[in-house]
Design goal:
By secondary structure, the protein is α+β, with helices and mostly antiparallel strands. It is built from 10 helices and 19 strands. A 4-stranded antiparallel sheet has the order 13-9-19-18. A hairpin with a 2-residue loop joins strand 16 and strand 17. Helix 6 crosses helix 7.
């Protein structure tokens, strides 16, 4: 069907049959009216329009629709679903939908064609990615334009992910240890003589002096061995610490105190880790970045035959079998799941899911407890702008003081006469994500016009 391309104006008062015939003849066409068209008086005013606009308006006024029959002939019938089904001219096209990779995506495209374009006859072949559509030509042209926009490659986003982990440990011990323990013991007379005679002598000279003074019997080798062990021991020897004596005769006593010590120690460590990953994700597609390890957890332990090594040894048949453990692996570390959606302003809408799983340092019936922290959010970032999406910091501090009771409450002496210890630990985890849009085609109009 080829109508004249010029535009005309209409100011009509009269019968609906005459209106339809006049509009068609004005553009060089012949209108054949179906017997279902009802004759009634109408009023029609329209200025400077082409054939498709004028014929659509005339059909709205008269309650009819038209369909082409030949190059210069159209058929006009009453607007009813039955007439549409029987008389309307239909066309059929086959589309290859390369963007639909799953049956679910194919079904979504089919539902869009049925709901927006009101196309009823659609056959889908999900395995080959084909859609067979049968509809009026104008609707089929609109559906074609819509499916062509889907055929464009989806934009993609490059993610630059940086994970910073800082572990700082600090330990300090400062103070003076004042002797606060003593040992009291009895000293035989022979030992005292040896003490007074020892001077700069060695241990062998001391033993000879004890034998000469009668402190020990030379024939008693057991006593000599025990004395040697006591004197040569660095911790238990009575000569390793200062010694004071008091009393006399059978009641001669010895008193020894521990040593005066000054402690100055400092231990500090920094551990800085940086994990850098580059991810690429398509429009509306999920991408996952996982950093960590898989930790084995024993679920059960069993043996095919109830037996023990003792029973197998008694039976002497070698039937003992070691228990067979059952393991499951838990993912520990950091999981990042990102879904990007590119807006019309070249910004990136991110749906983020972060999960951090670590060992809690304790267990229940031998099964370790896993600490779990999660973060979910949706943010919008301009193209190329970094964002710190998560930061976690744990701090612990421990203060200790060792000394004589009472001195720790005195403001000055608690720093001098006691040993003060301080231990701190800081753990920090920071995640920075920078999106960069790639493969972005120029923006096109999303409007689809149907011509009738």
């Amino acid at each position: 069907m080829i109508p004249k391309p010029e535009k005309h104006s209409f100011h009509f008062r009269g019968d609906s049959h005459q209106l339809l015939t006049q509009v068609a003849s004005t553009f060089g066409l012949v209108a054949q009216l179906d017997q279902s068209v009802v004759s009634r008086r109408v009023r029609f005013d329209l200025d400077d329009v082409n054939f498709y606009t004028a014929m659509a308006a005339a059909c709205d006024v008269t309650g009819t629709f038209w369909t082409p029959l030949a190059e210069k002939q159209v058929l006009v019938a009453k607007e009813t679903p039955e007439n549409r089904r029987v008389l309307e001219r239909m066309a059929m096209r086959t589309f290859e939908v390369s963007t639909a990779t799953t049956p679910q995506e194919m079904l979504e495209i089919t539902n869009v064609l049925r709901q927006i374009f009101e196309i009823r006859f659609i056959q889908q072949q999900a395995q080959s990615g084909l859609l067979i559509v049968r509809a009026p030509v104008e609707l089929l042209d609109g559906a074609t334009q819509f499916l062509e926009t889907l055929g464009r490659s989806r934009p993609q986003v490059m993610f630059d992910v940086k994970v910073y982990e800082i572990d700082h440990q600090y330990t300090r011990n400062l103070g003076v240890h004042i002797p606060n323990t003593f040992t009291l013991y009895n000293i035989p007379a022979g030992y005292l003589a040896a003490l007074t005679q020892l001077g700069g002598q060695n241990i062998q000279s001391l033993i000879n002096s004890l034998i000469a003074s009668g402190g020990i019997n030379q024939a008693n080798s057991t006593a000599i061995s025990g004395l040697l062990a006591q004197l040569t021991g660095q911790q238990s020897s009575i000569f390793s610490t200062p010694l004071a004596t008091f009393g006399g005769g059978l009641t001669l006593m010895g008193l020894s105190l521990d040593q005066l010590a000054v402690q100055l120690s400092l231990n500090e460590s920094w551990v800085k880790l940086l994990d850098h990953a580059t991810l690429r994700a398509g429009q509306g597609k999920d991408t996952t970045f996982r950093m960590g390890q898989r930790y084995p957890v024993i679920n059960a332990s069993f043996a095919p035959i109830f037996n023990t090594p003792a029973i197998a040894q008694v039976l002497q048949n070698g039937t003992f079998q070691a228990p067979i453990p059952s393991f499951s692996y838990e993912d520990l570390g950091l999981d990042i799941k990102v879904r990007p959606v590119i807006s019309s302003t070249s910004s990136v809408d991110l749906t983020l899911e972060l999960q951090l799983r670590t060992l809690a340092g304790q267990s229940v019936n031998g099964v370790p407890v896993i600490a779990n922290r999660q973060y979910k959010a949706s943010i919008r970032l301009p193209n190329g702008e970094p964002a710190m999406v998560a930061s976690t910091l744990s701090e612990s501090e421990a203060l200790t003081m060792t000394g004589i009771p009472g001195l720790g409450a005195i403001p000055v002496l608690n720093k001098i006469a006691t040993t003060n210890g301080k231990s701190t630990e800081d753990d920090e985890l920071m995640i920075v994500i920078t999106p960069q849009i790639v493969n972005l085609e120029p923006t096109r109009s999303a409007e689809i016009w149907l011509s009738k």
